[in-house]
Amino acid sequence: MIKSGLDALERGQLAGLKVGLVTNQTGINRNFKRTALVLEEAGANVNALFGPEHGYYGFEQDEIPVSGVVRDRWSGVPVYSLYRSVDLTYKPADGQAENPFGPPPGSLDGLDALVFDIQDVGCRFYTYPTTLGILMEQVDLPIYVVDRPNPIGGELVEGPYVEPEYSSFVGRYSQIPVRHGLTQGELALFINRHLLGGKARLEVLKMQGWQRAMTWADTGLPWLATSPNLPTINTARLYPGTCLIEGTNLSAGRGTTQPFELVGAPWIERPDRLAAELNRLNCPGLYFRDTFFKPIYKPYAGEACGGVQIHIAPQYADNPNGPEHIVRSGLLLIMMIARLYPEKFAWNPVHFDRLIGSDRPRRFLTGEAGNNGTLEDLFQMWTFHEAHFLEARQEILVY
């Protein structure tokens, strides 16, 4: 039986410690018992709770700041927010006391340690690893990371690094590709060793029985939506590619029952033609089906959108690492729509560049790169980053 770090927690391991718990709705054991209760039963005293983006209860939409202190409805313990701003480019100024993405002043008083237990999705621009990294940078307390499986596989890596000038809350650390193939605990070890100089007092509460080639179904662990728009494993597998859509004026299906599986806009009137062109790209493991949808969230809330639903081919259903080129496929998807609808399509260049970590991919697609290279050249550069990261991560692999 596969045990998460929470399921494998030994009684007495944190006994007597006054801990702050960073978690959300995904903090449960295999029997659906909340992390706070499991820690209490193991002898720890949970004196403070901290919620990431989307809040402690996990129902806030993206880029919704959460402020103030509330009491947990189950335990009565104070709940503090680690997401009190939407300035994704925030960098603390010299002498500035409070980082709106870090612990609020006074929230750590009297604590002996922090415990971090949030299910990640294995993608660099998902904000939970950034939240953990900021805690590792700022908090002078032991930090225990409850480890959980990487739901999109522990072997394959894909995509470019973040260039330093594009560092943000959706990509704070360089030397990490979009898909990193690490567990949350391994990613914390990598950041601490390679990027923070070992500053954090870090300990990973390890899983038992997990292997890198496992699918989520293989683990037998319950799946909870990691955020309002990542409800299923299928969504998580597409997310490293389709989230790039949010750097454009297309809808990525937020506000539907299939976010990040649907892509479209009101000005796509013949989605059948779009689907045919996309399928000619032969993106590995993907099939594009023409459809219409009406989101209830930005952009195009309440408007009928033509577009495609992205399906993962049946032969990849049991492959934890597939589709293997999902980040490249996301870029090709945007490229095709930009070519087919040049008068309607538009970039949100600031957000797209910080998601992918560079302005180079966008400049390749818009032709701003001139004759200095092709998309194949860009992907070759990614291949170099991927190979470098695979080598660099070897020394911190736990499983």
Question: What are the defining features of this structure?
Answer:
26% helix; globular; Rossmann fold; 7-stranded mixed sheet; 10 helices; 399 residues; alpha/beta; 3-stranded antiparallel sheet; 10 strands; Aspartate Aminotransferase, domain 1
Notes on the structure:
The chain is of the alpha/beta class and 399 residues long. The chain has two domains: 1-228 and 386-399, Rossmann fold (3-Layer(aba) Sandwich), CATH 3.40.50; 233-368, Alpha-Beta Complex (Aspartate Aminotransferase, domain 1). 26% of the residues lie in helices and 13% in strands. It has a seven-stranded mixed sheet with strand order 3-4-2-1-5-6-7, sandwiched between helices. It has a three-stranded antiparallel sheet with strand order 8-10-9. Helix 2 (127-138) crosses helix 3 (184-195) and helix 5 packs across helix 7 (326-340).
What number of structural domains do the residues give?
A: 2
Strand order of the largest sheet: 3-4-2-1-5-6-7
The count of DSSP E runs of length 2 or more, i.e. the number of strands, is: 10
Would you identify the regions where 5 or more consecutive residues have pLDDT less than 50?
none
CATH topology of the largest domain, by name, is Rossmann fold
**Overall pLDDT level:** 94
Give a quick account of the main beta sheet: strands, pairing sense, barrel closure. Answer: 7 strands, mixed
Classified in CATH, the superfamily of the largest domain is: Uncharacterised protein PF07075, DUF1343
**Percent helix range:** 25-40%
